[in-house]
Write a structure and sequence with these properties.
The chain has 134 residues and is an alpha/beta fold. The chain has one domain: NAD(P)-binding Rossmann-like Domain (Rossmann fold, 3-Layer(aba) Sandwich). Helices cover 33% and strands 17% of the residues. A 5-stranded parallel sheet has the order 3-2-1-4-5, with helices on both faces. The chain is globular. It starts with 11 loop residues before the first strand and ends in a 12-residue tail after the last helix. The relative contact order is 0.16.
């Protein structure tokens, strides 16, 4: 059998939106335990009581040196991809900012309206984008 395409050894820099929530904490666990990924940022809603805390402590992992922030642009700056498990309104804002910043985004949020789905689909043309709607 022939060899497949050459794979480059590259670490994916991941930020998590909704990081203080149940799914966000599970994602932090998954990213920190995965080869080829490194957690670079964590986002939560303005006025969240855990803002400013170390996300590793919030997730029960010990200190990771990553502070829970409310500034999406700051979080995106150090990331290749944002994984979003928030709410449909916040996810739309995160999608728009990720497109502007030319960052990948994975959205696990539910509850989108028909109009929001149309906007989500509209970012695909001309970009390397994939969508899975369940």
């Amino acid at each position: 059998m022939g060899q497949g395409p050459e794979v480059q050894d590259r670490t994916i820099r991941v930020a998590v939106a909704g990081a203080a929530g149940r799914m966000g904490q599970r994602l932090i666990h998954a990213v920190t335990q995965s080869q080829g990924m490194v957690l670079t940022g964590a986002l939560e809603a303005p006025n969240h009581p855990s803002l400013g805390r170390d996300v590793g402590l919030l997730a029960g992992l010990g200190e990771l040196g990553i502070t829970l922030l409310q500034d999406l642009r700051e979080v995106l700056d150090g990331a290749d991809v944002l994984i979003d498990f928030t709410n449909h309104q916040a996810s739309m804002d995160h999608l728009r900012e990720a497109v502007v910043a030319k960052k990948a985004i994975v959205i696990g949020t539910t509850g989108f309206s028909r109009e929001e789905w149309e906007e989500i689909r509209s970012v695909g043309p001309g970009r390397d984008a994939s969508f899975l709607q369940i």
